[in-house]
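Second opinion, please. Please look over this fold, written as tokens:

===
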Amino acid sequence: MEIEPGYTFVPLAQKNYIGIKDKRTQDFLSKWGIKGNFVIQHFSFNETFQQYHKYHLSEVFFKDSTVAKELLTKQGNRWVKQGITAATLEIKPIPCSVLNMSFFNKLNDPENGIVHRSGIIGKRYDMEVENFLISDNLRGMLLDEECSEYNLYMKDEREEFIFNIFQMLVLGGILCQYEDLLDPYLDVTKAIYKDLIRVQKGKDGDLSISTIVLQVVARDNKGQAYFPCDPCHKQNMGFLLVDSITHEVTTFLHQFGEYCLLE
């Protein structure tokens, strides 16, 4: 019987993400009310890791005192280090297999009703779903299960990590100025996704993604969720990204709300 590794974690400095830090990306994040509402952190580990260790590593990570002292969580409108170790965890593997932006070609095809031939996103009568205002077909595709556009992407496609990023950007924050064109959403999605995942080439020359992505809800000993807070809200999401090549763990946490300050 194999003994699972006893993982230890070391905090790493913030990475200089080229795509995310790009001025154009930052300007769009501000416009959509997203800037300041997600935080990315990095940790390293030296122990053996195989894909089937992912649940064990996640459990140990969120219960580790060193991680707890460094992990930023939202308190009011600030990102703070609360020093919470998890009492319970919900862990869901997230598919991460999309290698290029052709995944979104269905949105660019005017026959599918999301955009007009001019590239402008099609408008529709206003309605509210899950407290989000739907005023165009793109948001209808994301949220309105009754509209025909919703069926453009199947359940397994919607679970893809890149789709989660895209949806986060399109739905935006509290003060969100929506786009009339689709391209800015796709450009920023690509920038964030490319910064966060690792693509490797196999012996046969085929490309694949080596990053393992897990969606996590961590709760304290009172049953209160803190990673993320209020996980029932569609825009509150926490991910753990494991790079088995560099032995690094990256946390990606987004909290819906007003602009968050970093203490």
